[in-house]
Predict the structure.
Amino acid sequence: MKTAWSQYKGAKMQALMDLSDDYKAFLSASKTEREAVRNSISLAKKAGFKDLKKAESVKPGDKLYYDNRGKSLVLFVVGKEKLEKGMNILGAHIDSPRLDLKQNPLYEDGGLALFDTHYYGGIKKYQWVAQPMALHGVVCRKDGSKVEIVIGEKDSDPVVGISDLLIHLAADQMAKTGAKVIEGEDLNVCVGSIPVSGKKEEKDPVKANILKLLKKEYDIEEDDFVSAELEIVPAGKARDYGLDRSMVIGYGHDDRICAYTSLRAILEMSKPSRTSCCILSDKEEVGSQGNTGMQSRSFENTIAELMAKKGEYSELSLRRCLTNSYMLSSDVSAAFDPNYPSASSPNNNNAYFGRGIVFNKYTGARGKGGSNDANPEYIAKIRKVMDDNKVAFQTSELGKVDQGGGGTIAYILANLDVEVIDAGIALHNMHACYEIASKVDIYEAYRAYVAFLKDIK
Ligand code: MN
Ligand code: MN
């Protein structure tokens, strides 16, 4: 089987490995949408990007970012052409499946303090137990101040986690179907076991001790959980995978892997003819709703701001900009897995590790339902640019017909009249605590994004 690896030796191989190392560092430090936005802005600033909100005027060559509530981000490198001629847009999402704390999370049971959670995104719940987990997020106090929390990532930090039943007592559990082995309300995170010391008799002394600790370390009261976004995520860093170090294992590849490679591509754009744009969106895993999700008018508002500051805004110009834009809507794909061949699409219609970026004409479920079905005229344009730039690409279904399915943000931009195709990087273990991707696919995706921003017109 021919793969993209054959092109890589010497300095080219080194560049490929270096990008993977940079990506591993980004992924390890970006376990929430907020952390991904913060780290992306920091990389963008180093590359000369400025805050669009603070810009008084905008001219060709400017590099700008727009931070939407700290949870989604849009970047632009302003082109020589007028914005109504359209943009080349890269889009990916930076939220990942996880366990969110409920609004009243902390309780005590059986001499243990626990956090009650509500899972976010589609998960096989049994994969999320008996693992070291970390706590990331923000707590917003009534006085307007905000506490950032990361516990469980440093070697000296404690971790938390969800227990599973021992095999010795699991006769009833093991007879259940996979969907019921661990249920949503079983995802309770153990956070402590020492009762508070003192003269006062406490009803829940272990819980009281955790509250005392949170007050001391973070100045948080129990009521403050009501206005918090705290996420339980797998603890630890992304690492090389495989004896040959050809792959990366880590939490949150979906979809920070396409987000990071898209970001890297726009960071190196300089004075393009068409404006380059990169969207890093939130809330994809729960349907893209809300004012930080792709369905929000926020993206259109941001383009309107950009046009206004460039002296080109009118409602019609904004509509023309969208109509004349091209987009790669990037999200992860399912790589062929020799452990589960029957779930794959047959006849060379499934993605494989090592064959480069994946283009999906459509995604969806039950007869392409909910999918953007890319126009073949546009796919032909993309093929030409990829071939001209010697980018390795493959095409894929999301597995076998009627085995399941899924959606992306592609249709949302297509509904705004943008020309869109789904693209991305193939994974094993999608939505498990630790997902896996091929380094050569990461590198080819990055090269595909650079080619797309430069050459699509
Ligand atoms: Mn995704
Ligand atoms: Mn997903």
